[in-house]
Design brief:
alpha+beta, 10 strands, 28% helix, binds zinc ion
C-alpha cells in the first residue's frame, strides 16, 4: 500500500513534470473508483488550465489550477506512470492526463480504492477536513499531541498513530518503526504518553519518514522499480516484517502480535515504557 513517503515521493516526482504546464486532454476509462469520478467537474476545472502548485495533505495529493484542485489518492494499489502516448498501455488504467510538451500521465489502480475528485477554488473537502496534522508539517507538536491523546481514554498509542483524524498518513510500517525507535510499547494507552515521549516519538517518526522519502528516489521510475516494489522496501526496517529475526539493538527475536486486525512488530527488550 502506498504510504506517506511514497505519496510525497510521487508529489516531488510529478512537480517538475507538470508544474506550469497546461492540461490539454483528459480521459477517463471508467466512471468510478472508490467514489464516482466527477468527470464533467474535473474536465471543467482542469482542461486548458495551467498547474500552479502541487501539495500533499496526508496521503492525498492536490494538483492546483486557478479554478481549484484535483484531489488524488492512490488507495491500496494506485500509481501514476509517465507514458509516451495517450493510449492506455497497462491494465487497470483508469484516467489519462495529457499536458503540454507531450507529457502523458496514466493513473493505474487495480483494486480501485483510490480516488480522483475535484475541489472548487476556495472550498474544503470532507476527506481533508477531518485529517490530523501532517507528521512532516510545522503545526504538529509534542504538546499538541499530548493534549489530543489525553482525551482518548482507550486507544493504544499505535492505534492512535494510525488514526488519520489524529495524525495524517501514518501507516502500519511507520507506526511500528517509530514506536520501536522511541522505545514505546505499541499497546501503551495513548493518554499515558508524556510530552517528552511524544517529542521522541515525533522526531523518530519524522526521521524514518524522511529517510524513506530519500530512499524513494526523485523520478516516477524510481518510485516504482521494474519489479513493482516501492520506495520503502529500499529502506532498512528495524522491526516491521521481521518476526523472529534479531532486534538490531539488543539481538533478541522480534515479536509479532495482532492489534486492531493489523500485525504489530516490536522488541520487548528495547522498550523504555
Ligand atoms: Zn531489542
Amino acid at each position: 500500500m502506498p504510504e506517506l513517503p511514497e505519496v510525497e515521493t510521487l508529489k516531488r516526482a510529478l512537480t517538475p513534470l507538470i508544474l506550469n504546464k497546461r492540461l490539454l486532454e483528459l480521459r477517463f476509462l471508467r466512471k468510478d473508483l472508490r467514489f464516482p469520478i466527477p468527470s464533467s467537474q474535473l474536465r471543467k476545472g482542469l482542461l486548458n488550465q495551467t498547474v500552479s502548485k502541487l501539495t500533499r495533505e496526508g496521503k492525498y495529493i492536490l494538483v492546483h489550477t486557478p479554478e481549484g484542485a484535483l484531489l488524488l489518492h492512490l488507495g491500496m494499489s494506485g500509481r501514476v506512470t509517465q507514458s509516451s502516448s495517450i493510449k492506455p498501455v497497462e491494465k487497470h488504467t483508469h484516467a489519462i492526463f495529457q499536458f503540454e510538451q507531450e507529457t502523458y500521465l496514466h493513473y493505474i489502480d487495480p483494486r480501485r480504492f483510490g480516488c480522483l475528485l475535484w475541489i472548487p477554488k476556495g472550498q474544503g473537502h470532507p476527506l481533508l477536513d477531518g485529517l490530523g496534522p501532517d507528521p512532516l508539517g510545522t503545526e504538529i507538536t509534542a504538546k499538541g499531541m499530548k493534549l489530543v491523546a489525553g482525551n482518548c481514554s482507550k486507544a493504544s498509542i499505535k492505534t492512535f498513530l494510525m488514526d488519520a483524524k489524529r495524525i495524517a498518513g501514518v501507516g502500519n510500517i511507520y507506526a511500528c518503526e517509530s514506536l520501536f525507535a522511541a522505545g514505546i510499547h505499541p499497546q501503551r494507552p495513548a493518554r499515558l504518553i508524556s510530552t517528552r515521549q511524544w517529542e521522541l516519538l515525533l522526531s523518530s517518526l519524522r526521521k524514518i519518514l524522511e529517510k524513506s522519502i530519500a530512499a524513494g528516489g526523485t523520478t516516477l521510475r524510481d518510485f516504482h522499480s521494474t519489479d513493482g516494489s516501492q520506495g520503502y522496501y529500499k529502506l532498512s526496517l528495524a522491526v516491521y516484517g521481521k518476526e523472529n529475526l534479531l532486534c538490531p539493538v539488543c539481538s533478541t527475536p522480534v515479536k509479532r502480535f495482532m492489534q486492531s486486525a493489523r500485525s504489530t512488530f516490536f522488541c520487548k527488550s528495547t522498550l523504555r515504557c
